[in-house]
Amino acid sequence: MAACADKAPQSAVIETEIPERPAGQEDMVGFAAEPIDTVRVGFIGLGMRGPDAVERFTYIPGTKVVALCDIDSSRVEDTQKILDKRGMPRAAAYYGSEDAWKKLVERDDLNLVYIVTDWKNHAPMGLYSMENGKHVAIEVPAATSLDEIWALVNTSEKTRKHCMMLENCVYDFFELNTLNMAQQGLFGEILHTEGSYIHNLKEFWGEYWNNWRLDFNKEHRGDVYPTHGLGPACQLLDIHRGDKINTLVAMDTKAVTGPELVKEATGSAPESFANGDHTMTMMRTENGKTIHIQHDVMNPRPYSRMYQLTGTKGFANKYPREGYAFQPEQMDSTIIPDHENLNMHRWISDEQQEALTKKYTHPIIKEIGEMAQDVGGHGGMDFIMDYRLVYCLRNGLPLDMDVYDLAEWSAMAPLSAISIENGSAPVAFPDFTRGAWNKIKGYRHAYMPSAK
Description:
Strand content: 15-25%
Number of strands: 14
Radius of gyration: 22 Å
Shape: globular
Distance between the termini: 59 Å
Order of helices and strands: EHEHEHEHEHEHEHHEHEEEEEHHHHE
Strand order of the largest sheet: 13-12-11-7-10-9-8-14
């Protein structure tokens, strides 16, 4: 009977609550705070990621590392030695208790708190930091539940403080250059994007303090770490800048490797293990675009973030091969050599890609790409992330990623779990901007006028 109907019936979509914006609050779309002459930063969490972040900040003009915190005093001391080596004064030290970080946040000489702890502490620390008058930058994912996400959104709006997630993959050189090409129309209209976090963590599980990351996978289902793939995909599609994600559908495999890892670590098999070894999520936007995201940290696959776009005039792909394909009419001899031999069915040549990349090198890479590679951090993208955060704070500009990006990219985790646990049913994506997603047309990085 459905086949005879004028329109096929729509499957039921699961919706989550969208709380009303508290009275007196306004959205943070395009928000720019007052310029900060010197970004005075305190770091919470000095394990796998924190010390490298501290070192990167020592290379960024207009910053001062004011305070360091970790529950382990030896980690604080080891990080102090980074400042010693760089010829900079030691920072105030906080350690020894699970609440030591609060004393750091309560200092009156900080204007940025940089949070690099286990996932469960991200949101509480971010909330407390904004409530104490600080801008906040939080490692990924910034929150693990919808309640936490809405709390971060509401608190950012209430306090008028930036709340940015430290998503470094949007600053990868290939991603930035491809974004620049997309913004200049080389791919035509972008219809589909892909991303993932496929990274066998076998060598790293034991490095996570108190085994927190494996425990999180044991306790939570869904794509628990979606932002490395979703962030670049959303920027290509102008999410929150003229488009928004409407629905998602997710599914996963059974858990096989996860329980084996718990048995190896503890000596006994767990009674249950929530997260499947491999998770897939499909999303559709208001403007009829689609996104495909995958997650697998359990099994022996080569590292991949999948980064891929399909447009009406061209195609881009990063893993396992960086390359582009275009309709011939998209190029001419002023852009790449031998343009008449372009073919939609194969990659452009290495020579053509080198010429294309040279012409469309992103302005940020032109400005600091060489320095970023020298300082390091995943090939330089970590340094670019920190540099851009400081640049925007010092110049009173909107950040490259706002609290709604944080919310959207983090929310895929709990929303995908809802879909999977309901037989892969479609789930509505909340509008975290509460109606402001279409105020800005097109994603762009902010610059001072003289730097355009």
